[in-house]
């Protein structure tokens, strides 16, 4: 082999020649003889390109032969490389030699097989030549990235090297020193090491300031990357440097003489601190100066012909930083400076500043939604003025802000729709496409939350303009307008029917588009078609069903994951509308959903050179490992990458969702598809992405319900074999999610799904799963589930950041609160009693401790009430611990807590009247304010229900002459009509019971009026009305003379109702 010719071929511009040369080298590299030839050329070849290539090839292939070489050869190579590095005059070659030295050092230093290397590098770092100093730092950096733990004993020496190098006169040396400092960060796991590197921070800040001032942006970017690495160290030592870092970050980001990339990199410091150290930003009074700078940056005009896809403009990365601050800090720190800027900016003579005023409100809307809602009038003044601005850039941002406010300031902003919608309609006529698009977005956001009544007066002009825009606007505006049509249809409901004939052909036009440029609009049209069909109903859409399904099914053959995602959603809507009439399409749609679930969504563990692993748009690449960093002795370790096509994830989630929708709406007709659907949902329930798992957990109980409809229980009441199979397959998967799934929303779906299956199938069918189900529920109550574990950094003072209510997993606990009574009811009081005692009661009581949010306590007191209905008298043993909690919640500021506590109090009195006799006075006193008209309606009803249960269970112990008049003032019930039975049943009992009737005789006119009125109330169940009617009929028969005048004084409608229900 002519090695020189082969090396020349490796550098050839001809692909075939280069490929042949590379194959020759690869084949020759299987023998160690190639090493001496490459070493010779590295040391003596005249052409620098040959020396450089020899060094690169040695680094690639020497590793596989190193262990097989004798020690003498090791020493010879090491010495030769050290000499070559010092003697080499050409930078690229010198770098290749440095990387080769580092590669060999990774193999030898851990085993102490290169004595003197670190001392030599230390000497080299202070050499006269800046190139040698830089090379030494580069080797240090490369080494510590991989074998830093073996260098920890040398950290004091390295610290001195880095201190000197950061002061070096050569910019390249300072830059490489920064990289070397960053490489050490992952190994700073002990306090002595941290203390050493703490001394480097002030000098690093100085180096960065000098780099920024001198225009050395490459070094500045490296420095900010280094700071981010230092911030990641799990220790509190960086806290004192936050003010200096923030100042440097903000000043650099605001420096218009720098490249946008440098400025954005600087601002990452602020973004990181906002996400992970928000409390320190507020504690050190850094938020206001940050926001003042960022708000000004939002007004910086974009450079001409700027492409946001290549690099964000200053106003974009500044607004994103404000958004991060708003999402992570308390409203009181972020919102006041932002609102102050917006109010001042909207009056500016500069249109970019006026637009910035609206932009700041855009990015505050989500994170500061509470503060925005509180100050909505002031916020809307800015937005309305922006909508009327003479400049398109301001009108566009104002419309965008209004859309954001419509999303996040619900429901309060709906009160202003009459003053806001005309302004939005006005800008929909704007000649600027961007303004039109944002106006459509604002309408879309409003329509999602307005009801048919509010929208009714605006529907005609709204649809007229949207249909115009969707036909004449640019692509982005048409897409947004289609979304607005979808929201308008959804909000209008049946009122949308007059517009179907005009909208349908427009949507069909887009649904039949095949040009790739139209795919996003086709997706939105598919979504709009489904929502429109749902809004107007089966009869109105019936003539169009075939056309809709035909166009949608054709779209499934187009290779576009997003289109398939939206088409599955459309099919789900059609199934919900058509019910059993969906059967002609069922087999095809199920097959399509199964095919989507089986989509290949990525490749794992393949060679990075494989064409399949080339990242494409819409994909995410996670992790790469360089071959030279591998420690494999054979040197064959290839680079690996995991590539995930994100569009397919959404498609799988949508397909999993409709695999629940189809059985839900077709019932027994779904029987032929049960097994294949079950198999697929079990597969999706084990999928790596939480969104797909969640949809599988939601779909499984729906499949169970359809299976039970297709295969009803046996005459004995035992579930069918097919239903038992679904139960035995679905429950283990969902119960496993309790203690393995780390996504809260997925676990919520699993918990609720278990409840559906258990309540339907019963304890016998679920017998083998009751113990793990109870254990899993208890674990969640105790806060021990993986999805409840939150990784959080501690602040400098070691105090955890104040957690918001989401941290308490209120939705998850509410799901468990629904499951517990289902388990209790399924097992019965005797079997469930020990479970409640051992696994439930104490974790429930922990949720009433100080610091628990109102919502959590409300959920738990409601759960105790529901459990009490099953436990019955067995609840008595828990009253000593329960009653103090109950009385405290009855006095809670939150009406929801008072409401559930009142309900629980009634349940306790109903089942434990003897034990409650000593607490009657205290309980009546606690309930008295809840039964007044000033109380929330639902809470008042539950308080009335509690009194009703007390009257039924312990009438002799109550002061009826005091209790009844107060109770009657709370009638009729206004909201919670489930309390009708206890309330009106108690009144009927009082007037018919021989012992209590005489005691309430003087209140008979009021009692008859209350009972008669109940017979005309729409929300009162007929069963209760019949009880009331029959009671009055009984009284009329028994006390005719007294009752006739009372009944004749009633309004005619009440007389008629009483007679009808009493017949």
How would you summarize what this structure contains?
With 1063 residues, the protein is an all-alpha fold. Helix content is 70%, strand content 2%.
Task: Give structural notes.
With 1063 residues, the chain is mainly α. It contains 55 helices and three strands. The longest helix is centred in the C-terminal third of the chain and has 22 residues, at 744-765.
Topology:
Blueprint: H1 3-10, H2 15-28, H3 33-44, H4 48-66, H5 71-87, H6 91-108, H7 117-124, H8 130-147, H9 155-166, H10 171-184, H11 191-198, H12 200-214, H13 217-231, H14 242-253, H15 260-276, H16 278-283, H17 287-297, H18 314-328, H19 331-345, H20 351-364, H21 369-374, H22 376-387, H23 392-408, H24 417-428, H25 433-449, H26 452-456, H27 459-472, H28 475-492, H29 500-511, H30 519-536, H31 538-541, H32 545-555, H33 561-578, H34 583-597, E1 602-607, E2 619-622, E3 640-645, H35 646-666, H36 674-685, H37 690-710, H38 721-740, H39 744-765, H40 770-781, H41 810-827, H42 829-846, H43 854-871, H44 879-890, H45 895-911, H46 913-916, H47 920-927, H48 937-953, H49 960-969, H50 980-992, H51 997-1000, H52 1004-1014, H53 1022-1038, H54 1040-1048, H55 1052-1062
Antiparallel strand pairs: 1-3, 2-3
Helix pairs in contact: 1-2, 3-4, 4-6, 5-6, 6-8, 8-10, 9-12, 10-13, 12-13, 12-14, 13-15, 14-15, 14-17, 15-18, 17-18, 17-19, 18-20, 19-20, 20-22, 20-23, 22-23, 23-25, 24-25, 25-28, 27-28, 28-30, 29-30, 30-33, 32-33, 33-34, 33-35, 34-35, 35-36, 35-37, 36-37, 37-38, 37-39, 38-39, 38-40, 39-41, ...
Task: Please compute the radius of gyration using only Cα atoms.
Answer: 37 Å
Largest sheet: 3 strands, antiparallel
Report helical residue fraction. 55-70%
Helix- and strand-based class? Answer: mainly alpha
């Amino acid at each position: 082999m002519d090695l020189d010719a082969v090396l020349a071929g490796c550098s050839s511009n001809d692909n075939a020649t280069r490929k042949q040369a590379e194959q020759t080298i690869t084949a020759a590299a299987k023998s160690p003889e190639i090493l001496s030839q490459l070493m010779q050329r590295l040391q003596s070849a005249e052409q620098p390109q040959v020396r450089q290539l020899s060094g690169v090839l040695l680094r690639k292939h020497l590793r596989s032969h190193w262990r097989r070489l004798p020690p003498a050869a090791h020493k010879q190579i090491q010495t030769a490389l050290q000499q070559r590095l010092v003697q080499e005059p050409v930078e690229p070659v010198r770098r290749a030699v440095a990387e080769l030295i580092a590669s060999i050092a990774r193999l030898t230093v851990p085993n102490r097989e290169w004595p003197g290397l670190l001392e030599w590098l230390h000497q080299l770092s202070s050499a006269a030549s800046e190139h040698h100093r830089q090379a030494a730092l580069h080797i240090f950096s490369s080494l510590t990235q991989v074998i830093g733990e073996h260098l920890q004993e040398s950290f004091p020496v390295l610290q001195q090297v880095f201190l000197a190098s950061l002061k070096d006169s050569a910019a390249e040396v300072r830059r490489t020193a920064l990289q070397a400092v960053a490489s050490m960060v992952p190994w700073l796991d002990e306090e002595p090491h941290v203390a050493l590197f703490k001394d480097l921070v002030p000098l690093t800040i100085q180096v960065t300031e000098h780099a920024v001032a001198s225009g050395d942006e490459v070094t500045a970017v490296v420095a900010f990357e280094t700071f981010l690495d230092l911030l990641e160290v799990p220790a509190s030592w960086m806290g004192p440097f936050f003010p200096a870092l923030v100042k440097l970050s903000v000043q650099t980001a605001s420096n218009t003489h720098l490249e946008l990339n440098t400025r954005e990199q600087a601002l990452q410091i602020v973004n990181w601190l906002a996400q992970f150290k928000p409390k320190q930003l507020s504690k050190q009074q850094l938020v206001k100066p940050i926001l003042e700078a960022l708000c000004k940056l939002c007004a910086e005009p974009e450079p001409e012909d700027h492409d946001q896809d290549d690099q964000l403009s200053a106003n974009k990365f500044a607004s994103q930083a404000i958004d991060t601050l708003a999402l992570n800090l308390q409203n009181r720190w972020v919102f006041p400076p932002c609102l102050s800027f917006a109010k001042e900016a909207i009056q500016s003579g500069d249109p970019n500043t006026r637009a910035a005023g609206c932009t700041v409100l855009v990015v505050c809307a989500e994170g500061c939604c509470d503060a925005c809602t509180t100050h909505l009038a002031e916020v809307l003044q800015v937005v309305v003025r922006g909508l009327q601005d003479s400049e398109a850039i301001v009108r566009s941002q104002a419309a965008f802000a209004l859309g954001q406010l419509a999303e996040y300031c619900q429901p309060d902003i709906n009160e202003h729709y009459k003053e806001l919608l005309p302004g939005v309609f006005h800008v929909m006529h704007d000649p600027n496409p961007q303004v039109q698009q944002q106006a459509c977005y604002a309408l879309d956001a409003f329509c999602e939350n307005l009801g048919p009544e509010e929208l009714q007066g605006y529907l005609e002009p709204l649809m007229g303009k949207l249909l115009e825009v969707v036909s004449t606007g640019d692509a982005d505006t048409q897409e947004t307008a289609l979304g607005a049509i979808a929201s308008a249809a959804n909000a209008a409901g049946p009122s949308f029917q007059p517009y179907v004939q005009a909208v349908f052909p427009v949507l069909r036009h887009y649904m039949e588009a095949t040009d790739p440029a139209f795919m996003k609009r086709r997706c939105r049209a598919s979504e709009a078609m489904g929502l429109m069909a749902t809004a107007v109903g089966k009869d109105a859409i019936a003539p169009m069903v075939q056309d809709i399904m035909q166009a949608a099914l054709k779209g499934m053959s187009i290779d576009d994951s997003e289109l398939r995602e939206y088409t599955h959603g459309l099919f789900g809507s059609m199934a919900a509308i058509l019910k059993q009439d969906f059967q002609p399409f069922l087999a095809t749609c199920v097959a399509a959903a199964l095919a989507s679930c089986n989509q290949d969504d990525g490749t794992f563990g393949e060679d990075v050179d494989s064409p399949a692993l080339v990242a494409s748009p819409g994909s995410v690449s996670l992790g790469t490992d360089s071959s030279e960093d591998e420690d494999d002795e054979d040197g064959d370790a290839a680079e690996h990458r995991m590539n995930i096509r994100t569009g397919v994830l959404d498609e799988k989630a949508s397909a999993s969702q409709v695999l629940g929708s189809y059985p839900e709406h077709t019932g027994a007709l779904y029987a032929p598809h049960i097994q294949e659907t079950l198999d697929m949902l079990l597969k999706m329930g084990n999928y790596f992405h939480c969104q797909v798992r969640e949809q599988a957990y939601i779909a499984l109980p729906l499949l169970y319900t359809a299976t039970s409809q297709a295969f009803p229980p046996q005459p004995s009441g035992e579930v069918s074999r097919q239903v038992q199979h679904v139960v035995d397959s679905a429950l283990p998967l969902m119960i496993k999610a309790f203690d393995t799934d780390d996504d809260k929303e997925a676990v919520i779906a699993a918990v609720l799904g278990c409840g559906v299956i258990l309540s339907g199938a019963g304890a016998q069918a679920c017998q083998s799963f009751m113990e793990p189900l109870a254990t899993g529920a208890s674990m969640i109550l105790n806060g021990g589930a993986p999805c409840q574990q939150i990784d959080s950094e501690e602040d400098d003072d070691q105090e955890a950041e104040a957690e918001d209510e989401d941290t308490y997993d209120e939705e998850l606990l509410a799901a468990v609160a629904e499951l517990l009574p289902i388990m209790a009811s399924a097992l019965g009081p005797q079997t469930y009693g020990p479970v409640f005692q051992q696994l439930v009661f104490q974790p429930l009581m922990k949720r009433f401790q100080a610091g628990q949010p109102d919502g959590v306590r409300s959920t738990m007191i409601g759960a105790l009430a529901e459990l009490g209905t099953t436990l019955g008298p067995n609840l008595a043993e828990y009253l000593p611990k329960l009653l103090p909690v109950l009385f405290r919640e009855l006095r809670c500021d939150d009406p929801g807590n008072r409401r559930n506590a009142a309900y629980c109090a009634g349940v306790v009195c109903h089942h434990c009247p003897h034990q409650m006799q000593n607490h009657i006075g205290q309980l009546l006193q606690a309930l008295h304010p809840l039964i007044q008209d000033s109380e929330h309606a639902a809470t008042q009803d539950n308080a009335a229900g509690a009194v009703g249960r007390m009257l039924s269970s312990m009438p002799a112990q109550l002061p009826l002459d005091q209790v009844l008049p107060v109770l009657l003032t709370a009638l009729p019930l206004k909201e919670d009509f489930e309390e009708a039975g206890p309330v009106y049943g108690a009144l009927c009992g009082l007037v018919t019971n021989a012992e209590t009737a005489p005691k309430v005789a003087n209140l008979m006119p009021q009692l008859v009026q209350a009972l008669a009125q109940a017979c005309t109330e729409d929300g009162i169940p007929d069963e209760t009305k019949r009880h009331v009617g029959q009671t009055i009929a009984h009284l009329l028969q028994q006390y005719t003379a007294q009752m006739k005048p009372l009944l004749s004084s009633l309004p005619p409608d009440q007389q008629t109702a009483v007679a009808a229900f009493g017949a």
